[in-house]
From TrEMBL:
<feature type="binding site" description="axial binding residue">
    <location>
        <position position="199"/>
    </location>
    <ligand>
        <name>heme b</name>
    </ligand>
</feature>
<keyword id="KW-1015">Disulfide bond</keyword>
<comment type="similarity">
    <text>Belongs to the peroxidase family. Classical plant (class III) peroxidase subfamily.</text>
</comment>
<feature type="site" description="Transition state stabilizer">
    <location>
        <position position="69"/>
    </location>
</feature>
<feature type="binding site">
    <location>
        <position position="77"/>
    </location>
    <ligand>
        <name>Ca(2+) 1</name>
    </ligand>
</feature>
<dbReference type="InterPro" id="IPR002016">
    <property type="entry name" value="Haem_peroxidase"/>
</dbReference>
<keyword id="KW-0408">Iron</keyword>
<feature type="binding site">
    <location>
        <position position="249"/>
    </location>
    <ligand>
        <name>Ca(2+) 2</name>
    </ligand>
</feature>
<keyword id="KW-0106">Calcium</keyword>
<dbReference type="InterPro" id="IPR010255">
    <property type="entry name" value="Haem_peroxidase_sf"/>
</dbReference>
<keyword id="KW-0575">Peroxidase</keyword>
<dbReference type="GO" id="GO:0006979">
    <property type="term" value="P:response to oxidative stress"/>
</dbReference>
<feature type="disulfide bond">
    <location>
        <begin position="127"/>
        <end position="325"/>
    </location>
</feature>
<dbReference type="GO" id="GO:0005576">
    <property type="term" value="C:extracellular region"/>
</dbReference>
<keyword id="KW-0090">Biological rhythms</keyword>
<keyword id="KW-0349">Heme</keyword>
<keyword id="KW-0560">Oxidoreductase</keyword>
């Protein structure tokens, strides 16, 4: 064989090896989501977040409800990428400004946590991971289970208000639609029932309830519960800026527990989805099981939060690590993949 053929074959072999090396290097660079992702780059990250959550919860108990809602509103809309935290720009309305985000608050405390993490390790920990881990630690603050969650998410660069309705299940939708939307994220029926157990804590604004009270009271509501709801929501058209609300669970309003399931089986669910959950033949068996066993509820709730937190994340070289959680880094203007 002529020498030039040897040279050609050698170059070809070298090219193939190089391409394979690059492919393997890319795989090594992107391990996806893993436990203790920051153990080398920021070993104190999770501890800093946990301590901040404890401090902020001590000062403002309602922050825990906010962090729990954040994981639902962020991760259900395409992926867990902290797009919920971005401010609106001249070009686009942010997710947190939509009607579906009504009542979401305390975003500034996520920024407080981010600042504490940045002091420890600048430019290392994503806002998406902070959002997920703050929800995990808030669940513990509310008396719920500790859930071991993976990290390694990166931040998106755009907030897409126009797609919120497409992805985020609504409390007024049919249970079939709710199950379908969660199912598209890989969240099965018992996990959906467990996720809605988050309604065990917090409150529902009268704006979301009045259609069940006016002009006539929804006949499926427990008559013993109606006077309290009417007292808390005395206006058929409540002022959205007024702080008028009903506690989701009057018995243990600040504790994440299985009392919610006993309430909805007793027709004391505030939202349409609560009532449907307790009456639909696909979900009622799980509601009854969770009403009987807090241990079963916690097991399914932990699994559901894990599935939600791992919904289609940006990892590796996708997205970015934001310097501030409410704005994308200036050097990036292209859209997320």
């Amino acid at each position: 064989m002529a020498p030039k053929h040897f040279i050609f074959l050698a170059l070809l072999s070298f090219s193939v090896v190089s391409l394979l090396s690059l492919a393997f290097a890319d795989e090594e660079k992107d391990p996806g989501l893993v436990m203790n992702y920051y153990k080398e780059t920021c070993p104190q990250a999770e501890e800093v977040i946990r301590e901040q959550v404890k401090l902020l919860y001590k000062r403002h108990k309602n922050t825990a409800f906010s962090w729990l809602r954040n994981i639902f509103h962020d991760c259900a809309v395409q992926r867990c990428d902290a797009s919920l935290l971005l401010d609106s720009t001249r070009r686009s309305l942010s997710e947190k400004e939509t009607d579906r985000s009504f009542g979401l608050r305390n975003f500034r405390y996520i920024e407080t946590i981010k600042e504490a993490v940045e002091r420890e390790c600048p430019g290392v920990v994503s806002c998406a991971d902070i959002l997920v881990l703050s929800a995990r630690d808030a669940i513990v603050s509310l008396g719920g289970p500790h859930i071991g969650l993976k990290t390694g998410r990166r931040d998106g660069r755009r907030s897409r208000a126009e797609v919120v309705e497409q992805y985020l299940p609504d409390h007024n939708e049919s249970i079939s639609s709710v199950l379908h939307k969660f199912g598209a994220m890989g969240i099965d029926t018992p996990a959906v029932v467990a996720l809605l157990g988050a309604h065990s804590v917090g409150r529902t604004h009268c704006v979301k309830l009045v259609h069940r009270l006016y002009p006539e009271v929804d006949p499926v509501l427990n008559p013993d519960h109606v006077p309290h709801m009417l007292k808390k929501c005395p206006d058929s058209i409540p002022d959205p800026k007024a702080v008028q609300y009903v506690r989701n669970d009057r018995g243990t309003p600040m504790v994440l527990d299985n009392n919610y399931y006993r309430n909805i089986l007793d027709n004391k669910g505030l939202l349409i989805v609560d009532h449907q959950l307790a009456t639909d033949k696909r979900t009622k068996p799980y509601v009854k099981k969770m009403a009987k066993s807090q241990e079963y509820f916690f097991k399914e709730f932990s699994r559901a939060i894990t599935l939600l937190s791992e919904n289609n994340p940006l990892t590796g070289t996708k997205g970015e690590i934001r310097k501030q959680c409410n704005v994308a880094n200036k050097m990036h203007h292209e859209e997320d993949p």
